[in-house]
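If it is no trouble, might I ask you for a protein's amino acid sequence along with its backbone structure tokens?
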Amino acid sequence: MRIELSTGTAAELIRVEGAERGLVLIPDLMGLRPLFDDHVARLAADHRWTVCAPQVFVGREELTAEERLAAVCELNDEEVLADVLAAADATGCETVVLTGFCMGGMYTMKAAATGRFRRAAAFYGMIRLPEHWRGPGQGEPLELLAAGDPCPLLAIIGTEDPFTPPDDVAALEAAGAVTVVYEGADHGFVHDPDRPAHRAEDAAHAWARVIEFLSQ
């Protein structure tokens, strides 16, 4: 169901009676939509976790994909992470884990350093900000990880993903993250079966690896 977080931002929440673990799921660039409603419902049903997914590009949901790509530089880490932390509180669980996809994967890395989450798993998040995403409110994921006290972090990576080049992956591993690398996989190969990049077998393996990690 749709709720309003304490920050005023919309979120999708499925509450599971007696859940001992909460999960915050940060959507990709395009934000909340039926695809992510389905992910929230499935994860809650399959694992008996209370799951909450906050909206991204708050107040600008009408933007196209191209407009969103151009506007990431205008986002502010303080505001986005406040929504992520509010989503954690909305689960009502003391133990909360975190995952996210694409841009949401980047914010998963940033949020991993806040100290709020037990574990975090980023699906093909940007390890370093693309040049055109840099702005006054955007911090570098690696710098935030180094400055904070990050929880255990898992990163799902495709070798053909232009957003996660090998040097960046090596730097993320040096920062303490565990990486699972899929040979030949492009950006976005897990979460949306309608994308040309989707790889069903790799996606199933990646989901299983992430759930195992977040369950620990």
Remarks:
- The mean pLDDT is 97.
- The chain has one domain: 2-215.
- The first helix runs from residue 34 to 47.
